[in-house]
Task: structure prediction
Amino acid sequence: MEQPKDLQKPKGKLGILLPGLGAVATTFIAGVLLARRGLAKPIGSTTQMGTIRLGRRTENRTPRISEFAPLAALNDLEFGAWDLFPDSAYESATNAAVLESKHLDPIREEMEQIKPMKAVFYPEYVKRLNGTHIKEGKNKAELVEALQADIRNFIKEKNCDRAVCVWCGSTEIYIEASDVHASIEAFEKGLLEDHPGISNSQIYAWACIKEGVPFANGAPNLTTDFPAAAALAKKYNVPTCGKDFKTGQTLMKTILAPGFKARNLGLAGWFSTNILGNRDGEVLDDPDNFKTKEVSKLGVLDSILQPEVNPELYGNIYHKVRINYYPPRGDAKEGWDAIDIVGWLDYPMQIKVDFLCRDSILAAPLVLDLALFMDLAKRANFHGIQEWLSFYFKSPVTPEGLYPEHDLFIQSMKMKNTLRWMMGEDLITHLGNEYYD
Result:
């Protein structure tokens, strides 16, 4: 990847397209509308609240990332969505019950004006949902074209200069890449033949890439992480990234596990269980959909701890993940972790974590950051997998042959160093004179 010589500054409006106008998407939209009115703070957003150190420590240069990188401004964002229900963003946010009326009332009029386009939805991939606001087409190829038309119409109607897409839809059933995913030609043929290996999210991603729209996948679905999508992204010079927003329990794992490894503490077992309601909990109550999430969540510890490198400490970990649908809890998910660690002379110790989190509150700032950073990547002429954005995902997509980096602190360093490099600043390596690095 060559350093961008002519990084384009943002101009005009940026359209943010959201497949799925549910709890996460509406919480994100509401937060942006409130923040740009000065009615709330975008806490949790690296692009808005985060800082970046530049140069040596003695220089005392630590600007906000929003001041350092040429990101689109909140006032220049337009929102569009697809959903299998016709409810406006306000109605959907009210139903999701994430935000209180004190936050929704001041922006009600704006939220009511955001109405979803009809969704592409085959229920066999998300078995617990049945929608009424659905596109019709003779095959999946025709539905790709319908989504492309939606994108073009949205950009025109909202007078946008460009657009990005962040998947905020449900977790789909577990699908493995097969022959239909091997090449552009095979995938296009599969679209015409309604191949069962081509899911809803893949149809959205294919349409976005063909329209030159960067695509970030916030769910654990097989969406862009297969050869045909990689080839299409290269052909159209489009950035992609994913997958599965790193929010609650897995976020805690990527914070704690690097600490155990850094201090050479052993790990015997890690038992994780969740209770949650909302639409996501209902979808994950189906075993086929849960398997997709389970694969995403289980891969984190092995990648961070590398048991093959240090089998004495991490060669025999018992790792179990459970998700339980509990409607009364709604969006206020609770995650329990029982962690059995091993210390000096093999003495056992225990850590208990009870994280009472708000799933959409944690995910909303990630949607904003990914939209702004993917737009930046496009203007920097980056294309294909944006591994520098692994910071935001449970299952970071990597180029073929590379294992994903899950350590949150390594991910953060990589992301910030990419921004430094992009803007012509020295990378922070902590090498050199210890008093001035």
In short: The two ends are 26 Å apart (CA to CA). The chain has a mean pLDDT of 92. The first strand starts at residue 13 and ends at 19.
